[in-house]
Design goal:
ten-stranded mixed β-sheet; about 40% helix; about 10% strand; about 375 residues
């Protein structure tokens, strides 16, 4: 009985409200697909029957002008060859996103470093409801006026600390520089701003003041928090399990929730624990964010960007989503035969398989073989 009562805590009202709003903003076919996965599980369809998707994320570059504390940019296997997505196929790919609600121009790099970023956003605004960019904020003053007139629908800025020392330790630049750039952009534009913050042991106390910092900058509408994935690398950089069973985490969530309510800010703080509870089977390849890496390859999700399922430059977005490799990867998810990366990065647990596991087999569902076999899909 006590466990049931604990689930009726008032924060669950805020969680339900946030999730309802997020679901409402999705294509309704996404909602149907989530219901199907919850009910039919391994008997669900393998095809991606929601087109256009609700959200498409395109990694236009993986170059960056910063070296943040917990970035895995030095892991070449995960990052791949450093460079930009070619402009012409990018523009064609964007045209194939017609009807997408949110087009997120962001990946493992700083999108404002992309040559022609303003031209890309203007082009995207013709085809999607909301072109969005996530930036580290270093180039906002330089490109602010052009961004404000580009048709950008939303700007997200990553801030992982509210005091200069914490921010400098994590991001290696001065917080005052980023805040000045954000304030400048807010002064010349009505584009809504979202602050993204990674929560760790090293910055939990600093982030308690994020609502006040956000309110001091015009146009900030939402605070979005996320945790580090539990891995050997993250454990060396302040990994914190986001659970209300931890009194420090619970007090952080309570304090930020109340401040956001009082200051009129949207936040996902009550969903921190929820988002780390990985549902099985994994839903991302079915109704999550469609992720295209800088080489034009459809990836299973943003956390698995280096596994290439199908080339969207060659097949188009819809063709990539319906490719043989993409369907085979969805079959792995339905069979709960998770590749090593899913297990280590998202703590997914595979079920015992009747035969050898297919999740890490070379050439299977986009897993590169000796010559990269399977990467292009089919």
């Amino acid at each position: 009985m006590s466990s049931v009562l604990s689930k009726l805590r008032m924060p669950n009202f805020h969680r339900a409200r946030y999730l309802t709003r997020a679901l409402w903003n999705k294509n309704k076919l996404d909602a149907l697909r989530l219901i199907e996965l919850r009910t039919l599980k391994r008997h669900s369809r393998l095809r991606y029957y929601n087109f256009p998707p609700s959200v498409v994320q395109i990694e236009i570059t993986n170059r960056c002008n910063m070296r943040c504390k917990w970035c895995y940019r030095e892991n070449l296997e995960m990052l791949g060859k450093v460079g930009d997505m070619p402009l012409e196929p990018l523009m064609k790919l964007i045209e194939g996103c017609r009807g997408v609600r949110l087009l997120h121009l962001f990946g493992e790099g700083e999108p404002l470093m992309y040559p022609g970023i303003i031209e890309v956003i203007r082009h995207a605004a013709k085809y999607v409801k909301c072109p969005s960019v996530t930036t580290n904020g270093t180039m906002l003053r330089h490109l602010g006026k052009e961004l404000a007139e580009s048709g950008l629908g939303e700007l997200a800025v990553s801030i992982d600390g509210t005091d200069p020392e914490t921010f400098r330790e994590i991001r290696k630049v001065e917080l005052s520089r980023i805040l000045d750039n954000m304030s400048y952009f807010a002064s010349i534009s009505d584009i809504p701003i979202r602050i993204n913050a990674v929560v760790s042991k090293d910055n939990l106390d600093s982030l308690r003041n994020m609502p006040e910092l956000a309110r001091s900058i015009g146009n900030v509408k939402e605070l979005h928090f996320q945790g580090l994935h539990e891995s050997e690398a993250s454990k060396q950089h302040g990994f914190l399990k986001l659970s209300v069973e931890n009194p420090d985490v619970k007090s952080f969530m309570d304090e930020v929730r109340e401040k956001c309510r009082r200051l009129g800010l949207e936040t996902n703080v009550d969903n921190l624990e929820y988002f780390l509870e990985r549902p099985t089977p994994c839903m991302s390849p079915f109704a999550g964010i469609v992720y295209i890496n800088k080489d034009g390859y459809l990836a299973p999700c943003c956390n698995y960007a280096h596994r290439s399922l199908a080339n969207a430059f060659e097949l188009g977005l819809q063709g990539a989503l319906e490719s043989q490799n993409a369907r085979e990867f969805r079959k792995l998810m339905l069979d709960e035969d998770y590749p090593d990366h899913c297990q280590s990065w998202c703590s997914m647990v595979s079920k015992p398989q009747p035969g050898p596991s297919r999740g890490n087999m070379p050439g299977h569902a986009g897993q590169p073989g000796p010559t990269g076999a399977g990467a292009a899909g089919g």
